[in-house]
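User: Good morning. I'm curious how DGJ would be positioned relative to this chain. Could you predict the structure with it bound?
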Amino acid sequence: MISFSPDTGIWLLTTPHTSYALRIDETGAPRHLAWGPRLTLREAEGLLVPVESAGDSFEGLPPVGEELPVDGGTRFGPPSLQVRYADGSRAFEWEPVGHRVHEPAPGSTQLVLEFRDRVHPLFVELHYRVREDTDVIERRTVLRNAGDQRVDLLRADSAAWTLPALPDYRLSHVTGQWSAESQLRRDALPYGETVLTSRRGITSHHANPWLMLDAGDATEDHGRVWSTALAWSGTWRVTAQRTPDGRAGWTGGAGHEGTSVPLAPGEEHTTPVFAGLCTDGGFGAASRAWHAYTLAHVLPRGRETAAVLYNSWEATGFDVDEASQKALAERAAALGVELYVVDDGWFGSRRSDRAGLGDWTPAPGRFPDGLGPLSEAVHGLGMRFGIWVEPEMVNPDSDLYRAHPDWVLHIPGRTRSELRNQLVLNFARADVADWAYGWLTRLVGDHAVDFLKWDMNRAFSEAGWPGADQGDDRLWSAYVTNLYGVLDRLRADHPGLRIETCSGGGGRVDLGILARTDQAWASDNTDAVDRLAIQHGYGQVYPARTMSAWVTDVPNQLTGRTVPLRFRFHCAMAGLLGIGGDLTRWSREELAEGAELVAEYKKVRHLVQHGAQYRLTEPLGDRPTVVQYIAEDAAELLVLAWQYGPRHGTPRIPVRLPALTPGARYRDTRTGTVHHATVLTEYGLLLDLPRGDWSSTAVHLVRLPDSD
Ligand code: DGJ
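Assistant: Good morning! Here's the predicted structure, ligand included:
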């Protein structure tokens, strides 16, 4: 709901549990008023404080507190909007020109505040969208050059967010690297400016464009948390500030420093959505609200149950051929797998990562009759057929590169730096994007492909687009827009197609790509122990319904660690269960245990994929790591627990289970034991973890009808 007080000029955005208030101040600038628990318009008026005329003070305008701080006037903080006009001058002065309130879809309302610069015909719109079923507020900015000369947007953030004055501020976010993504950090927000960013062309393994701020007192289940997430899959920057006068806020959007967005006469630029959320109930409640929002409003098919998949990568590497894939597919089907995915190595001269990337025809020596026979065999086994692609890349040793050396990002006369022996195709070029769309739609159509694992295995370098007007600036945004366009076109052509986003593991996971895909490969690290920490960070914002996780062989290829098969399964069951081991080497006992665990997952996956997730302990501490997934109506729940063998004498502490139906009783589907909800919630469940290193368990509890 969106309301307005003409007397005070306050706009009030109302979500189920929160309010967001702003007003246009005496200078015409949009100023923040409140973001927190619900308020009426009248109550919001009580927050108005007389604004000192900035001209009276030494300080200028406060560095946080505006809805989109611009470069202009007496502002000295990091600008959300920084403009350079054709005459070389900079600055923006707010002149309000109108507003609109409309319903983009049933259950949602959008406020658009319209402004222009007082001097140049540059128009700026601030968009705010609220919905009836979520506290997430979606913001974005639209800029239009109505003049007859180019304008350069040196910085065009989606939104700036302001916190109320708090006694302290703490920042939660993730850092990482390849095979160690999503490492959760919680640190006091330093005074000054803290920049979270990716300059790599992709969202990146190293940082992810979400953050949470609290007063330093929030726990997993108590306290107020403000969080935001940017829906963008290219480079990005979020600058959080803690000001000398004790305030905090942040601005963020697409692009990194040194790049700009040129706006030709008449051209419009729409920023990605920067979504914000204020929650009570600690980090757990914040995560659950993001999960629910992503399922309901981001994923194209968030309510759909994801299939159990098999992926060949760790089993075969590049050594892919029809016979070996069929052998694996037969074993996978016997395990209960529903989707068989052939990974890298099926095309062109691809025998290693040194050659063939870009030549997307099945390798004749390995698939003499093309992919048809394998696709048919997989379908004949009752599974869906999936295949790996990396459409944005090329090996210099490929027919594609020999034919189109100009298709890659490059700067004439400079080195073309390789990473993983490959170069980046310039998807900002319409001909390159069309070429990719063309072969992909044929591949999917011709071979009855049900699933694409869309990979992207290197960062941009020498990011130039010779020949295009302002190409080196335009490419950052055009690349992502065209990537989204290819995904959208493929989905429209093939409504049954499902897509996994992958970028050397979790290098491209964000709300932008998740709006066009169905799931994400969270990391190339399949070590179940390392994975617990990665999954813990991943799940702070992104739901288990999107998190693809495989059971692979031991010793783990990356870490050399050996943990029991059951532990590996339980870890992968915390997301979308997949199998990635070499099934031709699994013993009869392992295959039997695997089949049993796949069947068990199928009985509880609706809870993991669509239930509410409660993290009940810190991951990888002295106590077991415990996560609960509970159905919306609390009729059923799953508890997954993992632990490293404790020292003898370590007390076993029962785990208290939240969100159960008060007074009800729950039956353990494996043991038949009946528990009272009051006991489970107030006194806890004593987990029956086997002795020894790396033990784990899955407890499935079902509520009994009142009469039982
Ligand atoms: C990186 C991915 O993350 C892996 O799962 C695998 O698909 C390889 N690329 C293949 O080259």
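The chain has a mean pLDDT of 96. The longest helix spans residues 471-493.
Let me know if you'd like a different ligand tried.
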